[in-house]
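Hello Y.,

Per our agreement to keep a running log of every chain we model this quarter, I'm adding this entry. I've kept the format consistent with earlier entries: sequence first, then predicted structure.
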Amino acid sequence: MIHTLPTAAGGFSAKLWSFASRTTPPASMTHITDHLNFGPSLDVAARSAASISKLQEPENQDNLLIIDADGAAVLLRDQQPHTTTVPAWPQGHVRLAVLDGMGGHGHGREAAEAVASGLLRIPACVTPEELGAYLDQLHYELQTHFSRPDDHDTFRRPGTTLTLLEIPPGGAPLLFHAGDSRLYEITPHAATPLTVDHVPATAFAMHGLLGEDEWRQQVHGEHRAQISQAYILGNAFANPQTLDDGLLPLDASNLPPFLRQLADRRAVEVSADATYLLATDGFWSCARPQPWIARWPQLLAGSAATALDALFRDYAHNPPPQLHIDNLSAIVIRFAPPDNTGNIDETALPTAPIASHF
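Predicted structure for the entry above:
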C-alpha cells in the first residue's frame, strides 16, 4: 500500500508498472495454505508477494493470517511464511485475514506483522459484536505499543488495513473491516465488492457531499492513494484535519443509503455458487480498475487454488494499463453447499412423510 492521509504532506509517489519488466510466475505456484486443513466445507488458497516486477524487490508490507480447522496457523514474519499452532482452537473454526501496511508511514510492515501476530491471541468468536470487541482492544493495545513519548504527530503513527473473515463451523462468516483492502463476491456474472473502502470519498459521501455515481467513480473507477481509516492508525472521518485514536465502524447509522448494506462488522451471507476474494489493493491500483476487475468472473473459476493461480498469472501476463507496482496478497475462498443428509429423523415411522426441505 502506498497511502497517505488527506492532509499528510510529502507522501510517497507510486511508480508505474514497466511492461518490459514483468516476470512470468511458475506454472505451479506455491500457496501458504497448501499444508493446512479447512475441512469438507471450505476450499481456501492464499498467497502473498512483494512484487512481480524485475525492476525492484520492494519490502512486502502486506501480511496474511490464516488459522485452519485444526488450529494450525500461518502468517508472515520478516516477509517469510511462519507456521504455528493456536492452543485450544475449536475444531472446524477458521479465521482468514489480509493486511496491508501503510507505506506512506513508518513501520508499515511491522504494523501489519504485529496485527497478524495479535490475531493469534484472540479467541474464536461467534458473533460480530464479540469479534469487534476483541479487535478494538487489540487496536488500542498496538497503538500504545507503537507510540513514542517524544512523538506527538499522530499522522506518523503506523497503520495497516485489516479485512478479516471469522468462520464458525456451520455458521455464517463474520466480517471485520478497516481500511481499503476488500472482500469480493465473484459469480459467473459479476465481481461485487462486499466492503466499503475507508477513503476520503466515503467520508464525503457520509457527510452528504458525494452522491452514489461520484462515489463509485472515485472509489472503483480510478486510483487515489489516500485513506481515512486504518487499524492502529485511527480514523479521520469526522474531520480530515484530525486523527481520532479509535476505529469508527461504518454501518447503517452513518453510511449513505446506497452503502448501508455493507457494514464493516456483520455476518455475511455466502453462496456455494460464488467465489470469495480477500485481497489487498495492489490488485486494482491502476488508472481504470473496472475493466480489469470485470475479467475476474471468467478468470476465477474452478477450485480456490486454480482461481488464485489464474489471478496472479493474469496480473503478470495481462496487467491493466498504468498499473502501480505494489504488494499483492490474496485469499480465495469457496464454500461447499450445506449437507442436510444427516438431518433426517431416523426415529420417524416408516409411513411418516418427510418434510419437503429434506
